[in-house]
Design brief:
The protein is built from 15 helices and 21 strands. With 481 residues, it is an alpha/beta fold. Strand 4 and strand 5 (34-39) form a beta hairpin. It is globular, with a radius of gyration of 23 Å. It binds nicotinamide-adenine-dinucleotide and manganese (II) ion.
């Protein structure tokens, strides 16, 4: 891997500098070293990219459904062929373990395959209206889509947006998170190689409140798809409101993991750990509140803290690493602030909470996985999204109490239930206010199933066939007899 990358913007099939000439440095989260400089797109660049995407609409619509399928399959194949290089780039950029990065690159390829397959299977209807004739619906592209991505799973979440947008015939301006623009740019270049016409897929790295805001408010953008924090999501929704843009939002979470006494404890302990510590806890779906039925509370925490202490913190590119670096020192400061707050609020720090002292971690944004017990549901550490390797354990006595605690949140993204009693599992699953939920596992994101939040966790759904509604308009046509 080159020691100092120089990256540009991708507009209309060309790699170009920002109009302002400005660049932003990328800092390696694991070392603190500057390792890349990326053109910083501004208002002018977003405007150019949106104009180009608007003009490219005709060229993409002309590509028939069979060819569009083939092009997206080409792209999936190119992602797989470049898989290791992409995974290394992502691992270094985000500070995440290389094994997790490889999985995410694989998921991105799967995503293009899935939506490639949907292209010639999803259409409109004929409807038995009262009037004499035929009413039918056509599914048409929305137009230029402004896609705004976060830094935690850059290539996977970008694929979740780009693949269905292209499948439905839209054109794109993608604004990756300022910290993680690298795989987004590679994806844009691979799309050109795969046969996506120039101008259909543009990539503008840049600062959120400049490039992101310009994209969300550009009058030629018809749809905004945003993944990020609830606070910024709300701001983006206001910007999009001006022109009645279509909008979908995937936002923060504070999901609950409910463990009942009859659970399979061996499985539940390990999954409780990985459903919060994957990606060092920087996961919107993190089950960061662990609700334990009182009789198993002590034993569960004992076994869990044992597993926490065994985790291998390490440099992201090392194969055996389980916990990499956080995205930045500034973000680690924020997480540490919550750890201090938890202690002040009276929670019991069971393990972790410190910066690892080994020399190899000097300069990087590493942090020990942290387990709090005796957390009260009203504490800030139980209410606010920490977005780091911090788990808060809360005891409960009854099913009703568990449901009430789970729902005592402004968020509603994911969650898990552990019990062998399927009646209870279903009852509790229905009662929890959340968009996705898993029973007897820690993981509920599937490419083929709708994903998204309720309450302040978001609006609309990604993945599955459900997302295609958000990337198409239904046109009704009536033909009189
Ligand atoms: P963020 O809100 O800080 O940034 C998200 C994106 O918005 C970035 O590209 C950023 O540059 C851009 N942005 C920032 N200010 C903007 C503005 N004023 N106008 C337009 N765009 C702007 O989020 P983050 O720190 O990148 O990611 C972490 C957050 O994302 C967490 O809250 C996490 O829960 C959430 N997230 C949600 C999901 C989900 O699917 N629900 C997935 C991943 C992350
Ligand atoms: Mn942020």
């Amino acid at each position: 891997m080159g020691s100092h990358l120089q990256e540009l913007l991708l507009i209309g099939g060309d790699l170009v500098p920002a109009a302002s000439g400005l660049q932003a440095d990328l800092v390696d989260p694991a070392t603190g070293e500057i390792w890349a400089a990326v053109a910083a797109g501004g208002v002018e660049d977003i405007d150019r990219a949106v104009q180009v995407a608007d003009q490219a609409r005709a060229s993409w619509r002309k590509v028939n459904s069979h060819d569009r399928t083939r092009i997206l399959l080409n792209l999936a194949n190119l992602i797989r062929a470049q898989g290791e290089a992409l995974a290394q780039l992502e691992s270094r950029n985000v500070g995440k373990p290389i094994r997790e990065a490889r999985e995410e690159v694989g998921l991105a390829a799967d995503c293009f395959e899935y939506y490639a397959g949907a292209i010639n299977k999803i259409g409109g209807q004929t409807i038995p209206v009262a009037a004499a004739g035929i009413s039918m619906t056509l599914r048409e592209p929305v137009g230029v889509c402004g896609l705004i991505a976060p830094w935690n799973f850059p290539i996977a979440i970008t694929a979740w947006k780009v693949a269905p947008a292209l499948a439905m015939g839209n054109t794109i301006v993608l604004k990756p998170a300022s910290q993680t623009p690298l795989t987004a740019l590679r994806l844009g270049e691979l799309a050109l190689q795969a046969g996506v016409p120039a101008g259909v897929f543009n990539v503008i790295p840049g600062v959120g409140n400049v490039a992101g805001a310009a994209l969300a408010s550009h009058p030629l953008v018809r749809k905004v798809s945003f993944t990020g924090s609830t606070e910024i999501g709300s701001a983006v929704m206001k910007l999009a409101a001006e022109d009645i843009k279509r909008i979908t939002l995937e936002l923060g979470g504070k999901s609950a993991n409910l463990v009942f006494v009859d659970a399979d404890l061996d499985k539940a302990v390990l999954k409780a750990l990985w459903s919060v510590l994957g990606n060092a806890g920087q996961d919107c779906c993190a089950r960061s509140r662990l609700l334990l039925e009182r009789p198993l509370y002590e034993e569960f925490l004992y076994r869990l803290s044992h597993e926490f202490k065994k985790l291998k913190i390490g440099l992201p590119l090392q194969e055996e690493t389980e916990i990499g670096a956080l995205i930045s020192l500034a973000h680690r400061d924020r997480v540490q602030h919550y750890i201090e707050l938890g202690k002040q609020e009276g929670a019991t720090l069971v393990c972790g909470g410190m910066i690892p002292s080994q020399d190899e971690f000097r300069g990087g944004a590493f942090l020990q996985p942290t387990l709090f017990a005796d957390v009260d549901p009203n504490m800030k550490i139980a209410q606010e999204e920490i977005f780091g390797p911090v788990l808060c354990a809360i005891p409960f006595d009854t099913e009703e109490e568990a449901i009430a605690i789970a729902n005592q949140s402004l968020y509603g993204l994911s969650g898990s239930i552990w019990t062998r009693d399927m009646g209870r599992a279903l009852r509790v699953a229905r009662a929890i206010e959340t968009g996705v939920l898993s029973i007897n596992t820690g993981h509920s994101v599937h490419l083929e199933a709708p994903f998204g939040g309720v309450k302040r966790s978001g609006l609309g759904r990604e993945l599955g066939l459900a997302v295609l509604d958000h990337y198409s308009e239904l046109k009704s046509i009536f033909i009189a007899e």
